[in-house]
Amino acid sequence: MNQDQIMQEIREVNLSYMMLAQHLIRTDRAQALFRLGISEEVAQIIDTLTPAQMLKVAAGNTLMSRFRFDDDMVWNLITSHGRPAAAEDNAHSLHASIIMASNVNEATA
Q: Which contiguous run of DSSP H or E holds residue 41?
């Protein structure tokens, strides 16, 4: 994959992400804030973007979405890395969700 193809892929992902974010915000704002990890102010901006503005924002060369957790503990919990699948996976998944939810609260505070 060459550089031009990578940039095109980034633009496509950005546009898809913007469209999804706007749809989530308009459908269930509280859930969107949590799932996207954004503040109310950012949600308001995304909500009011026109299609032309979304295309312009998405056309940048920087990926807009990012992994919301950079903690190896969370990754290990959600992937069950290093251990066989077990009934306790639901508990690990719940624990990871709690950790990620607390990170959202810290980011928007």
A: helix 40-48
